[in-house]
Design brief:
49% helix; mainly alpha; 2 helices; 104 residues
Length: 104
Amino acid sequence: MTTVILVVHLLLAIALVGVILIQRSEGGGLGIGGGSGMGGFMTGRATANLLSRTTAFLAAGFMATSIALALLANAGRAPKSILDQPAPQSVPAPAPAPAAPLAR
């Protein structure tokens, strides 16, 4: 299940980057949408509308898969409190070994 969601998440991320790069920015950027470059199929405004809606859809899907992956990663863990743990037991230090007599 996690693998399927992860693959969908990666595909959404790649598609989101691609759609964002296609959009026309205010400075021109990498945008290829709009103008007469589309051959009259869609006007510049309609193309911007389509790309904006596609970006919103992909972003919503990306966020949904992000939340799903976070929930699945945390599903098997029980909350632990530091107050519920017993105090650590002190281990007695080992007795020092008797010193060997010095050979002269």
